[in-house]
Design brief:
With 138 residues, the chain is α/β, with parallel strands linked by helices. It is 26% helix and 26% strand. The protein has a four-stranded mixed beta sheet. A two-stranded antiparallel sheet has the order 1-2. A two-stranded antiparallel sheet has the order 4-5. The longest helix is centred in the last third of the chain and has 22 residues. The protein is globular. The chain starts with a strand and ends with a helix. 15% of the residues are buried. It binds zinc ion. The site of zinc ion has 8 residues, from loops.
Length: 138
């Protein structure tokens, strides 16, 4: 399930306010429209309606593709610099709080990224690999 809510954000440059759809997780199969928005660079993006200042919200985003079988997790690098990343990730690199699920064993090997553009690139990369695998098998 893709959890989302609206959040009112105030532009730091001109103080105009706008509502942003805030996502914490994207499941590619459950919410393909959320995947499309991610690939278009629109997820967790504040774009000021008045002065066009734009930035990604400072919050983690977990991407889950059940069909290909992987997860990728974006974290703002400030969480690493402050040490708050340890609220999400154990010192051994494993994500906290994700249940060990035999049908989702890749949850133990999540790919972490620290840039929203890199998350988009990684999703595209995995899509290309999956398409090639499907083509080779077909
Ligand atoms: Zn503005």
């Amino acid at each position: 399930m893709t959890l989302h809510r609206y959040k009112e954000i105030q532009c730091p440059d001109c103080s105009a306010k706008d509502e942003v759809i805030v996502l914490d997780t994207i499941n590619a199969q459950v919410s393909p429209e959320a995947k499309t928005a991610l690939l278009e660079g629109k997820t967790n993006l504040f774009a000021c309606p008045r002065c066009r200042t734009a930035f990604f919200l400072d919050r983690p985003l977990l991407y889950h593709d059940m069909q290909i079988g992987y997860m990728a997790w974006y974290f703002p690098f400030a969480l690493v610099q402050s040490g708050k990343i340890l609220d999400w990730i154990d010192p051994d690199g494993q994500a906290k709080g994700l249940e060990r699920n035999p049908e989702c064993d890749y949850a133990a090997s999540i790919h972490y990224v620290f840039d929203m553009d890199e998350l988009v690139r990684y999703v595209r990369f995995r899509d290309v690999l999956a398409e090639e695998t499907t083509r080779a098998e077909g």
